[in-house]
Amino acid sequence: MSEDRQDETAEASVLPKKAPVKVKGIYISGYMAGSAGFQDILDKIEGTEINAVVIDVKNDDGRITFVMDDAPTVKEIGAEKKYIQDMPAMMAQLKAKGIYTIARVVAFRDPYLAEQKPEWSLKNKDGSLHRDNKGLAWVNPYRTEVWDYLVEVGEAASEAGFDEVQFDYIRFATDSSMKQVVFDEKDTQGRSKTDIITEFIEYAYEKLSARNIPVSADVFGTIIGSNVDAQAVGQVYSDMANHLDYICPMIYPSHYGDGNFGIDHPDTQPYDTIRAALKLSRTDLEKTKPEGARQAVVRPWLQDFTASYLDHHISYGKKEVRDQIQAVYDAGYDEWILWSASNRYTWDALLSEEEAEKEAARIAQLRGTEEEETETAAAKTEPASVKDQSQAEKSLEGAVAKEETTGQETQSGEASEKKEKRNKPPVVIVTTGGSRNE
């Protein structure tokens, strides 16, 4: 990054852009958004605390889900697959209901762009297009042409009416086939995976902020507190948080290895798992925040599906979803998004608008009391244990070195029903970790 652009980025990052609501959202695939089922979802949202939706704009296949005007590269490669036939009408409907709209833009796992622009893609030693263990090609995070394409999509999403752009898959592939990939020095210029992912975030944030577009990013939960996992995927939690409006860790209980947080089977204890993950988030961000600097609002993804592929799992229903939401509040955070790849949500787990307002007032009152107690107890805080101090040298979940088999980093559209057996992590570390899969 040039010195001039560093200065520009710093200036653009001074004031974070806040959503008009504290987001309580759900994910909707592009396929669902363009189907008859979309109206049913809107009908179920009506009167509940849900005030935001995350909709696929660039999906897991690399396809753009509606017609994009003024997006030259999208047009050039024919990336549009018009799941959503009438975006203006859909957006008008959402705005009329007061729903905050977030555009999901899948970044570097883009099999469509990789096939259309192989020169922008990961290559094997023999010069062939690299494919992961699912046979999908990835684009090269070191290529700035890819960055510009993603910004182009983000800008077009904003023009279509979306309130926020949310990047997903802003990372490197992690399966064993990555050993075959060769990176050209003229692209890397000595920069590590974490260097380039953070640099992309800075670049995209600068460009979109110039248009007053809020920017968020989805990240592995496992990178929080783990240098090993951060280096594997290229995501450093605190660094990314310094260049975003919102950071969205994927902390589903089902994706924490047995023993994490001292919990035998994290999927069976959703409240404890989410609370522990967010406690680690707060510790990481507070420890690394530069004095006087801005930092992203933490808005976690929560689990609204049953991980039946696990040997030790429980069925997720009203109590399990609500327990996760309560854990978010008890950890001191206010925003959350529910993930279900199939877009089937536990509607009876949600409060009415009136109930949510009363809950917010109660939380605010409790936090006021807790702040006074925290100030009194701060001087008595003991230093971190040896285990806590050493966790950054370990993989927190042990499975991040393998590409996950299913999930939110997931299937899209009609393929979203597919379930596969998730590999058990080869290492069990009693801390945290996670990924975005269902």
Describe this structure in words.
InterPro entries: Divisome_Glycosyl_Hydrolase, DUF4015, GH. The structure is a single chain. The protein is α/β, with parallel strands linked by helices and 438 residues long. It is built from 15 helices and eleven strands. Strands 9-8-7-5-3-2-1-11-10 form a nine-stranded parallel beta sheet. Strand 8, helix 12 and strand 9 form a beta-alpha-beta unit. The two termini are 36 Å apart. The N terminus and C terminus are likely disordered.
Mind sketching the topology for me?
Blueprint: H1 3-12, E1 24-28, H2 30-33, H3 37-45, E2 52-58, H4 72-77, H5 87-96, E3 100-106, H6 111-116, E4 123-124, H7 144-159, E5 164-168, E6 181-182, H8 185-188, H9 193-209, E7 215-220, H10 227-233, H11 237-241, E8 246-250, H12 270-288, E9 297-298, E10 301-303, H13 318-330, E11 336-339, H14 353-377, H15 386-390
Helix pairs in contact: 1-9, 7-9, 12-13
What would a concise description of this structure say?
This protein is of the alpha/beta class and 438 residues long. It is built from 15 helices and eleven strands.
